[in-house]
UniProtKB/TrEMBL annotation:
GO cellular component, one term: beta-galactosidase complex
The protein, known as: Glycoside hydrolase family 42 N-terminal domain-containing protein
GO MF term set: beta-galactosidase activity
GO BP terms in the entry: carbohydrate metabolic process
Hydrolase found in the keyword field: yes
The keyword Cytoplasm appears for this protein: no
Protein species of origin: Gonium pectorale
Keyword annotations: Glycosidase, Hydrolase
Domain of life: Eukaryota
One Pfam family, short name: Glyco_hydro_42
Residue stretches making up the Glycoside hydrolase family 42 N-terminal domain: 50-307
Length: 508
C-alpha cells in the first residue's frame, strides 16, 4: 500500500465481545435498472434531429430490446443549445417524444453568449470555452428558467411517466467541474469577483487576508485565486490561499447544483446527480468534494455512482475498488445507483464484477451507459445486471477517508514513480478488506457521519486526514479519535511527502 499503515490496534476478524452486527451495507436484490441514450446518440445513431419514421422505428426496437433485457428505465438527455435555438423558441415537439431526461446546461446556445459575452467559462491559463460559467448570475438564471419550464412541461404533459431530471453543467454529465488542457476551471471574471465577495464576507480586512496567505495585494480588485494546473506540483499543496480557493470553489459549485435540483423538485419531479470516481489525485481539479455537499442536500433525491473501470494509469481497474467508492454514498440514506460506462472496456465479465461489487457496496440499482455499438442488450447483460452477493455478512468494517484531504494533490504526479498514490492506496485497501466475502464495508468521507455510526462497526480503518478546515472540523476529528478507542481499529496515513502530518487551517 502506498503510504504507511500504522496500526493502533491490529484489526480483528470477528466481532469484539458483546458487539453484535446491527447494520448491513450490501443489498441482496436488484431493484431498478436503466440504460442511457444521450442527445448525441439521438442525432448520430438514430438520426432524430427531426422526427422521422425510420429513426423512430430504430429507437422503438432499441426500447423493446431494453425491455427484453429487463432494463426498466431509459434515461435520455437533451442539450440546451439544441433545445433552445433562440431565446424565444423551445423545441417542445421533440421533448414530447422523449421523457426521463438529463438536462445538459453545459452546451449553451450561441444566443446566450451574444446576450452575455462575458458568460463563458475561463480556465487558469486564460482560455475561454463554449460552455457557460455557472458563476455568471444572469446567464445561469436563464439556464435555470429553461430547466423550470422543461420540468413543468414534463409534469403536465406526462404525469406519472417522467420520473426525474438531472441538471448538468459538466461535459461528462457528472456533478463536477469541467477541465480541458489540465487547467482548473473556472476563472471567469464573475468567478473571481464571487471569490472576493466570499472572502470579504468572512474577513473585512485585506491586511488580514495578505497575512493569512503571505501575499501583498494592495486592493481587493487585485486579489486573485491561485492559477492551478494539474500536475504542476509534486507532492501536496499546503498553502492556505489554495485551500481557501478550493473551499470556495466546492461550496459555490455544490450550491449551483443544489439550487438547480430545488427547481426540479418544485416542478414536481425528483432530482438526481451522477458522481465520478473519486479518491484520486485528480479530485481537486474536478471539485470532488462537492460530493458530500450535494449528497447531503434535501434537494437531491438519489445518487448515481458511475465508473468506466479505467485507472488513472489507463489500465483496467480492479472492480473491488467499487466497494469503497460506491459505499461512500450509502451514508446519506438515499437510493444509490451504480452506472457502468463501457466506452473504455466493453466486457461482460468486467460488467458482472462491477455490478456484483456495487451491490455489495449498497447499490441495488444498476445502470449502463455509452453502450450503443459496444454491448448487446441480451441475456448475458441481464445476467450481469441481476447479480446476487455470494455470501452473508458476519462483520462490518467502518472506513473513514477524508474526501476534502484528497484535494491536497493537484494532479497526476508525473515526476514521481507513482503517478496516483491516492488511487493506489484506496485500491489496495479495497483488496485487503474484501479478502473475506463475509466482510461488509461502510465508507464515510465526513468525520461526523463516521463517528455517529461507529457503534455499528465490528472494527474500523481510519485514514488520517491531511488538512482540517477550521475549529469545528478539529472538534469533529477529536471526537472521532476518542470514539475509535472503543473498538479494534487500524490507522493509515495518506501518502504525503516528507512525513507530513495533520494541519488545521485557521477559521476564515
Amino acid at each position: 500500500m502506498s503510504g504507511s499503515g500504522n496500526a493502533a490496534d491490529e484489526p480483528s476478524s470477528s466481532p469484539p465481545a458483546g458487539r453484535t452486527l446491527t447494520k448491513i451495507i450490501r443489498k441482496t436484490e436488484v431493484q431498478n435498472t436503466f440504460a442511457t441514450i444521450f442527445h448525441a446518440e439521438f442525432m448520430d445513431h438514430y438520426k432524430l434531429g427531426e422526427w422521422n419514421e425510420e429513426g423512430a422505428m430504430k429507437l422503438l426496437k432499441t426500447l423493446k430490446d431494453m425491455e427484453a433485457a429487463k432494463i426498466k428505465t431509459v434515461m435520455y438527455s437533451v442539450s440546451w443549445d439544441w433545445f433552445a435555438p433562440n431565446e424565444q423558441t423551445l423545441r417542445w415537439a421533440y421533448m414530447n417524444d422523449i421523457v426521463n431526461i438529463i438536462i445538459d446546461m453545459l452546451r449553451s446556445p450561441g444566443w446566450l453568449f451574444r446576450k452575455h459575452p462575458d458568460s463563458r467559462a475561463v480556465d487558469s491559463g486564460g482560455r475561454s470555452y463554449s460552455h457557460m460559467s455557472w458563476f455568471h448570475t444572469a446567464a445561469n438564471r436563464l439556464a435555470i428558467d429553461m430547466l423550470r419550464q422543461l420540468g413543468e412541461h414534463m409534469v403536465k404533459g406526462f404525469p406519472g411517466c417522467v420520473v426525474a431530471i438531472q441538471p448538468v453543467y459538466n461535459n461528462e454529465y457528472e456533478a463536477k467541474f469541467t477541465q480541458e488542457y489540465d487547467s482548473f476551471q473556472d476563472y471567469n471574471a464573475h468567478a473571481q469577483a464571487a471569490f472576493r465577495n466570499w472572502l470579504r464576507s468572512r474577513r473585512q480586512s485585506l491586511v488580514e487576508i495578505n497575512r493569512r496567505w503571505g501575499t501583498g495585494f494592495r486592493t481587493w480588485a487585485e486579489l486573485k485565486p491561485p492559477p492551478m494546473m494539474a500536475g504542476m506540483l509534486t507532492g501536496i499543496e499546503e498553502h492556505t490561499r489554495y485551500w481557501d480557493w478550493m473551499r470556495f470553489r466546492v461550496e459555490f459549485g455544490a450550491s449551483v447544483f443544489n439550487r438547480a435540483c430545488a427547481v426540479v423538485q418544485n416542478a414536481g419531479l425528483k432530482c438526481y446527480h451522477h458522481f465520478p470516481e473519486f479518491f484520486s489525485v485528480l479530485d481537486a481539479m474536478y471539485g470532488a468534494s462537492m460530493f458530500h455537499r450535494i449528497a447531503a442536500s434535501k434537494h437531491t433525491d438519489f445518487l448515481i455512482m458511475d465508473s468506466n473501470f479505467m485507472t488513472p494509469y489507463r489500465t483496467v481497474m480492479n472492480p473491488v475498488k467499487l466497494r469503497i467508492y460506491v459505499a461512500a454514498a450509502h451514508a446519506y440514506n438515499k437510493p444509490v445507483y451504480f452506472e457502468a460506462a463501457v466506452e473504455r472496456f466493453a466486457n461482460f465479465d468486467l460488467l458482472k464484477a462491477g455490478y456484483k461489487n456495487a451491490m455489495m457496496a449498497g447499490a441495488p440499482n444498476m445502470g449502463l451507459t455509452n453502450w450503443l455499438n459496444r454491448i448487446e442488450l441480451n441475456a448475458s447483460l441481464t445476467q450481469a445486471m441481476y447479480t446476487h452477493p455470494p455470501c452473508k455478512v458476519d462483520e462490518l468494517v467502518g472506513v473513514f477517508i477524508h474526501l476534502d484531504s484528497c484535494s491536497a494533490w493537484t494532479g497526476l504526479q508525473q515526476s514521481s514513480e507513482v503517478k496516483d498514490p491516492l488511487h493506489n492506496l484506496v485500491e489496495d485497501l479495497a483488496e485487503k478488506l474484501t479478502v473475506n466475502c463475509t466482510t461488509d464495508i461502510a465508507v464515510y468521507v465526513e468525520l461526523d457521519r463516521f463517528t455517529s455510526d461507529i457503534e455499528h462497526f465490528t472494527r474500523a480503518v481510519f485514514v488520517e486526514p491531511l488538512f482540517l478546515y477550521g475549529s469545528n472540523e478539529l472538534l469533529s476529528y477529536a471526537a472521532a479519535k476518542m470514539a475509535l478507542k472503543q473498538l479494534p481499529h487500524q490507522v493509515l496515513h495518506l501518502p504525503a511527502h516528507q512525513g507530513f502530518s495533520l494541519k488545521v487551517i485557521e477559521d476564515l
